[in-house]
Amino acid sequence: MKFHRGSDGAWLINGRMFDPAYSHADVPAGSTELWTVVSDFHHPFHIHNATIQVISRDGNAPGPYDQGWKDTVFVNKGERAHLAIRFSNYKGRYVFHCHNLEHEDMGMMATFRIT
What we know:
This protein is globular. Strands 2-1-4-8-6 form a 5-stranded mixed β-sheet, with no helix packed on it. It has a 5-stranded mixed β-sheet with strand order 3-10-9-5-7. The chain has a single domain (about 1-115), classed as Cupredoxins -  blue copper proteins (Immunoglobulin-like, Sandwich). The protein is mainly β. It has 1 helix and 10 strands. The longest helix is centred in the last third of the chain and has 5 residues, at about 100-105.
């Protein structure tokens, strides 16, 4: 997933403004997937109905603050965070987003589906 600012100043995920009808990912219920989050600015990546564990940051081992499962991971400017994401067994449409309130308000959100 790529968190970045568009040429018009809008905050985007994978080049898109928030569209609740568009799913960025469909994941099986109860599965664990490896995702990479890339950021052009510092963004706290937050996901609903799933938990995250940092596998690496820019190919380096996770730091002490990365230990354990969480629902929000801070991604530094220019960083590639490799994440294991464990999805719940509750099927449906959920969101992930930047947890900076002003970025959320500007549409830096996306949906995924647990199937």
